[in-house]
Design a protein that fits this description.
By secondary structure, this protein is α+β, with helices and mostly antiparallel strands. The protein has five helices and four strands, in the order αααβββαβα. It has one domain: 3-Layer(aba) Sandwich (Aminopeptidase).
Length: 140
């Protein structure tokens, strides 16, 4: 998992996000043990060259779930080799085994390679995404 975080830091060019406040081994072990968290790694010669982190979200309106791909990346030196597609295909099998009905993922505007991959695999939906800050309840 730590190697995958390093690969994400390089692939996304976000070392602060993936290295500055990295969780300790106990946290990562607990996360990996949770049923709703899915982590897949593509490994070549003992090096993580691709990774996917996803969350299974149980639904309330029907007895089913969705799987949200939170992060998906491939090391720059290993792109255009089908690694991201293979990771998504593996997740599709996992989702089917779990009874999920759909996978979904976000892409940033202007990220043409990601958008092209996702359009090849699924249906595009135009949505708006909002980050709402956490607000602790005021103390009396």
């Amino acid at each position: 998992m730590e190697s995958m975080l390093d690969m994400f830091a390089e692939a996304f060019r976000e070392p602060e996000t993936y290295r500055a406040k990295r969780p300790n081994q106990a946290y990562l072990t607990q996360l990996l043990a949770r049923d709703h968290f899915i982590a897949l790694a593509a490994v070549k010669s003992e090096t993580v060259v691709g990774g996917l982190a996803a969350y299974e979200l149980p639904k309330f309106e029907q007895a089913r779930s969705e799987i949200y791909i939170y992060d998906l990346a491939v090391a720059a030196s290993h792109r255009r080799q089908g690694i991201a597609t293979a990771l998504i295909h593996e997740l599709q099998h996992i989702a089917a085994d779990r009874g999920a009905w759909v996978l979904f993922i976000q892409a940033d505007r202007g990220d043409a390679p990601a958008t092209a991959l996702y359009e090849k695999l699924g249906t595009r939906e135009e949505v708006l995404h909002f980050d709402i800050p956490v607000a602790p309840k005021p103390r009396p």
